[in-house]
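Figure 2 data, in text form.
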Amino acid sequence: MTYQPSTSLLTLMRRLVALSPSRAKAGTPRRIGSAGTALIKRFEGCARLRPDGMVEAYPDPATGGAPWTIGWGATGQDRFNGGMIRPGTRWTQAQCDARLAEDLNRYAADVARALGGALTTQSQFDALVSFHYNTGAIGRATLTKRHLAGDYAGAAREFARWNRAAGQVLKGLTRRRAAEAELYLSE
């Protein structure tokens, strides 16, 4: 005679599996989901839209200067015009969207490397990609260490510590970190 679990036990087991963090299959690159992309777009905005439809670079809010940012939070190299993103850099909306797609792939790969085989839900992954997209700190943050240790509540609390730029607490960063922590804990 074989043991047949009750229907309620099977339902409970399915729910537990659905709620537990998952691993990406070996060799399958992790990608940011729609919730993570929406969070990044909400906080990065595609600011400085000009009357001619072009998007113009703007200074860092904390420093009033470098790094100059354009589109959905892009800094550094201007692959469309050459050189670095700087005052006067202009892109089309399509260029802003293309750069975002490239950056999301790169940042998702960074996060996937930092997490290795750690159990991670899609919401956790999305929140961590948003965090890394904004801070570049996935490899050194205590947040990552706590996640790797399975301390998800502790990891979620760590987001709030990353609300400063140039030594100043910024309201926008405080709101963003709260939104990332909420997304991180949502599954």
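Caption note: The two ends are 38 Å apart (CA to CA).
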